[in-house]
Inverse folding.
């Protein structure tokens, strides 16, 4: 059986990039870290690290085991926290990963009502787009995550094993400078476009292709406030989901809801039910807050 302490050492080396940094993070001596790595190699019968001058790097086997170690240790830490809360050793804790526009709209309301109803439970947030949020969820670094998916988008890697609760259907809007005519994507086929993250860029290209053209993407930024400022300055047009516009609306842009274009927002958890009580309570508050997150059409 693999030793948990040695797995924790390997994960720290992978995360921090060196024996010295891992030793500092763990509070160990460098020889102790090296000893644990050597013993782990003996236990597994695999070469996990390679010496490079004064440094080391993980082999392919080392990287694979380090990734599994992160997931195992994350789930173990989560189990310890849940058990401690259940037995009354200390206050409970629940952690949520959420994308920016959710954090800017309904998540604060959900957090406030959760805190009022469960003051003994510590609630933490981390901002993460769905691919990173899924990784955090699977690794046990958060208990819940907010994700979204477009109807024509293929399932993302790592989605297996997740249980999802739909929270809302979010319309997609065309965003153009105030006074600029054109209510369809195709009306702006010859203009420059502004896109967001890689996943949002892929969706924009897919939507424009369905409208019969390839967008000329001149600017890319994940910041929906910056996107609207670029549009307001006449530097391009874009599409934005409803939550982004509900969180922040630039006064000098014009928005048009695009028929048939939307994405679904989910709250996701990992593993088999039942969920810890704090997680169940947080999901209930998220559902309630999401119900009024968007203005009526």
């Amino acid at each position: 059986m693999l030793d948990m302490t040695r797995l924790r050492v390997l994960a720290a080396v992978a995360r921090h990039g060196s024996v010295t940094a891992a030793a500092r993070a763990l509070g160990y001596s460098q020889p102790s870290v090296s000893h644990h790595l050597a013993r782990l190699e003996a236990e597994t019968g695999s070469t996990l690290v390679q010496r490079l001058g004064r440094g080391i790097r993980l082999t392919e086997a080392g990287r694979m085991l380090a990734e599994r170690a992160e997931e195992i240790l994350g789930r173990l830490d989560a189990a310890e926290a849940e058990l401690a809360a259940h037995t009354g050793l200390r206050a409970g804790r629940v952690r949520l990963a959420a994308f920016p526009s959710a954090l800017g709209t309904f998540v604060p309301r959900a957090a406030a009502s959760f805190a009022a109803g469960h003051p003994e439970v510590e609630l933490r947030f981390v901002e993460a787009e769905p691919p990173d949020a899924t990784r955090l969820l699977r690794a046990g670094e958060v208990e819940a995550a907010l994700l979204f998916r477009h109807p024509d988008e293929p399932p993302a890697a790592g989605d297996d094993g997740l249980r999802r609760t739909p929270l809302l259907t979010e319309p997609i809007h065309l965003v153009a400078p105030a006074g600029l005519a054109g209510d369809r994507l195709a009306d702006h086929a010859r203009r420059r476009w502004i896109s967001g993250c890689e996943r949002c860029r892929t969706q924009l290209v897919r939507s424009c292709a369905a409208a019969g053209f390839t967008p000329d993407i001149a600017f890319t930024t994940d910041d929906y406030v910056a996107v609207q400022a670029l549009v307001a300055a006449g530097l391009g047009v874009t599409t934005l989901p409803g939550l982004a516009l509900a969180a922040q609306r630039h006064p000098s842009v014009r928005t048009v809801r695009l028929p048939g274009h939307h994405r679904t927002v989910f709250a996701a958890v990992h593993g088999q039910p039942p969920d810890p009580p704090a997680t169940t309570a947080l999901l209930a508050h998220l559902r309630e807050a999401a119900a009024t997150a968007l203005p009526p059409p």
